[in-house]
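debug: dumping io for the single-chain case to check the tokenizer round-trip. Nothing else runs in this session.
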Amino acid sequence: MTIHRASIRLLPLLAALAFGSAACAQSTAPGAGQGAGQGAAQPAATDAKAASKAAPADPRAAIAGKLEVPVDAVKPGPIEGIYEVVHGAEVLYATADARFVFDGELYDLDRRANVSEERRAGARVAALAAVREEDAISFGPKDAKYTITVFTDIDCGFCRKLHQEVEQYNGLGIRVRYLAYPRGGPGSEAWAKAQSVWCAPNRQDAMTRAKNGEAMPTRNCKDSAVPKDYELGGRLGVQGTPGIYTERGDYIKGYLPPDRMLERLQALEAAAQGGAPQPN
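debug: decoded output
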């Protein structure tokens, strides 16, 4: 699988926050003429004053403003006093005073469930459901037992391998629904190839020919889905191609042979029904 780091909106802000914190820590260190006790007490006093401040009247608005996300992306979290921020498929947690934010997995030990992944999966389901069926290139019947949405690059080796076996996936009851994710981004050769496929009169045939290495005529069309698919892949956090999502929003990072894909889908389905930990 070829790795391509997605442009996730919140990560640059978090990186900037981390850099700023490091700079502040350096600037508050005791100077050459200052006693260690005096230097250590000062930050503690500052923290105590900050902790005593009341939370903003509308914590959601304050948190949204600092993280540069819509207010409706912020909701009360499962822990009292902690707010959950879901933007795209990213999940963060923030304190009600909009001062602290932390990025990590939150688990409910009583349910043995990854709460953060549940939220991400829900966001993925909503985003993928909004994709028009005519914008995807699908192989397999609509009433297949399973449907996987695959963000694909025409030249990616494992993407080609998956497509060579698409009939086997279909035979196992797995419908393959392609969205475009040209790894080189706009203006690249990969982008041009994706455009040629998505703008072809017969997109299924064009996909197969392109995946087999055939040179495709250059095509462009007004309502191409390629830019929308690529932007969506970035929001969902696609980390490589093929980037695969189930109907419940599970993220499968890369190619699996048809039989192993069926096993993974069955295991994910069983975990969802029984509340068991999801397989990796």
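debug: round-trip ok. The radius of gyration is 23 Å.
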